[in-house]
Amino acid sequence: MTSARIFNDREEAGWRLAERLRGEPLERPVVLAIPRGGVVVGAAIARTLGCELDVVLARKLRAPYQPELALGAVSEDGQVYLNHAATAMTEVGESTIEAERAHQLSELARRRDLFRSVRPRAELAGRSVILTDDGIATGSTMIAAIRSVREADPREIVVAVPVGSPERIDRIRSLCDRLVCLDEPLEFWAVGQSYRRFEQVSDEEVVELLREYGKPAGRARVGRSPAVNPPDRSPAVNP
Q1: Tell me: the pLDDT tens digits for 208-222?
Q2: CA–CA separation, 79 vs 101, rounded Å?
Q3: Residue 45 counted as domain residue
Q4: What total number of domains does the chain contain?
Q5: H or E element at residue 157
C-alpha cells in the first residue's frame, strides 16, 4: 500500500486543489466553502484561481454521547439529510433528531448573521460552483450542502476536497457533476490524519477571509500561483 498524502495545513491543501482545477472549463466560477475549516481551503482555491469566495452553511447532526458520529446534517434552509445507517445503529428517536436539528439551526442562524454581515450571498444561477471542505468523513454535511446549492440552479457543482473516505467519496461523486479528491486513503479514520497542522479555525478567521476574497466575480484578488513560486514547505507526500 502506498503512503497516504500528508498536507502541511489547509492552505496548502487548497492551492494543490486549485492546481488540479486550473484549466478546467468553468463558467464564472465561485468557491463555496463549508465553515469553518473548509473556508481556509476555499480561500486558497479562490486566491489561486482568481475567483470569488463564499460560504455554504450546513451543520452535522451529532449522535447523543458520540458528537463525532454524524446522524446526518442540516442546511441553513432547514433541509435535513439523514444517515440512516447511523440512526439505526444508535437507535435514536425522532424527538432526539428534532432537538439536535433545532440546536444546529440556531448555530447556523448565528453564523449566517455573522458571515453575511461581510459577505452577501453570491448569485449561483448559471455558474460553476466549486464546493469544498477540508475533507470528507461521513459525507453528511457535504450532501446537505450539495442539495442546498442545487436549488440555486447552478450550471454545475464541482466538489473539490483534499481527502476523503473512499466509500463516502463514491457517494458524493454520484450527487455532483464533477469531483476532485487528492487522496482517498484505504485506512481512513479521520480527516485530521492527512494534515500535519489541523488547528481549529475561528469565526474571526472566516470573517477575515470572506472580507478579503468574498468579492464579486471579476474583482476577486488573484494570488500568485503556488506552482510557479510555492511557499517554502516540506513535501506534501510522506517519503
Answers
A1: 999 999 876 444 333
A2: 10
A3: yes
A4: 1
A5: strand 156-163
